[in-house]
Amino acid sequence: MNDDIYTLIRGHRPLLISLPHVGTLIPETLRGRLVDRALAVEDTDWFLDRLYGFAADLGASMLVSRHSRFVVDLNRPSDNRPMYAGSNNTELCPTRFFTGDPIYRDGQAPDETEVRRRVATYWQPYHDALAAELARLQAQHGHAVLFDGHSIKSELPWLFDGTLPHMNLGTVSGTACAASLSARVAAVFATQSTYSHVLDGRFKGGHITRQYGRPADGVHAVQLEMCWRAYMDETPPYRWHDDRAAAVTPLLRRLIETLLEWSPDA
Questions:
Q1: Which has the closest alpha carbon to 209: 119, 134, 124, 97?
Q2: Distance CA 124, CA 20 (A)
Q3: pLDDT of 228 higher than 80
Q4: CA distance 234 to 239
Q5: What values do phi and psi take at 104, rounded to 5?
Q6: Residue ranges per domain, the chain?
Q7: What is the pTM for the complete model shown?
Q8: In sequence order, which ranges of the chain are alpha helices (DSSP H)?
Q9: 60, 53, 49, 47: which is closest to 10 by C-alpha?
Q10: Helices of type H across 59-160
Q11: Which of the residues 55, 116, 147, 161 has the least number of beta carbons within 10 Å of its own beta carbon?
Q12: What is the rounded CA–CA span in Å between residue 177 and residue 163?
């Protein structure tokens, strides 16, 4: 299913992969208000639809954004509450890059009325589709697993100290999924030493993981924030790296297969 806001591929197994920051589109009416640098949409979760493309062939559903997070951040709550209290955060309609620099020209940032309009136009349809697909999978299989996929530059001092591990798993400190699923996911990464990893570190899970991960109701959510260096170049123009992507894909495939095969009754 295709929409102006997202692309939805409906699978036949109990896993939905959400990729809310893959989109790069910026409406023409907005482009002139942004600084030139913003038009390159540098804070995109680059190429994740390509990297996880194999998952649709395994029977997973996939929901992929089309618009840039600079328009509205689909992984923030619609009331704009900060995700990580006490740390620098970007907003529901971001006004700063991940470096802390301004995205908008002077006086051009959106006011609250415009933010509400963007929520209605872009944010709400994505979340309606996400909720509906989870409900469909749960009704069909008795449970649903949500995998929220993200990627980020390894070093961003405005957001976090030091260098992130390659793989940053989030289960909202164990509340977003069953303990057995969290353990199986962690085991996937524990059996290899090529990629550093952490569970519920700096990135414990954004709004999507927190909102939809309700194991008592049969929906289990896991987020992965993967560093760009695992599969692409971290400097402009942010190119896909064939060798790195090929090397990390078997690990990601094991992760997706684990999510597909897990059952709360196992």
A1: 134
A2: 12
A3: yes
A4: 8
A5: -100, 150
A6: 6-261
A7: 0.96
A8: 28-31, 48-51, 54-57, 112-118, 124-141, 179-190, 207-212, 242-261
A9: 60
A10: 112-118, 124-141
A11: 161
A12: 27
Are 169 and 186 contacting, i.e. CB atoms less than 8 angstroms apart? Answer: yes
Q: Is 140 helix (H, G, I), strand (E, B) or coil?
A: helix
Q: What is the CATH number of domain 6-261?
A: 3.40.630.40
Contact predicate 203/159, CB 8 Å? no
The Cα–Cα gap between 70 and 95 comes to 8
Sequence length of the chain is 266
What are 108's strand-pairing partners? none
Residue 99 one-letter amino acid? T
Compute the distance between CA of residue 226 and CA of residue 252 in angstroms, rounded to an integer: 10
Question: CA-to-CA distance for 266 and 263, rounded, in angstroms?
Answer: 5
Q: Which tens digit of pLDDT belongs to each residue from 113-143?
A: 999 999 999 999 999 999 999 999 999 999 9
CA distance 86 to 74: 21
Give the count of alpha carbons within 13 A of 51, CB side only: 32
Token look-up 């680059």 returns: 46
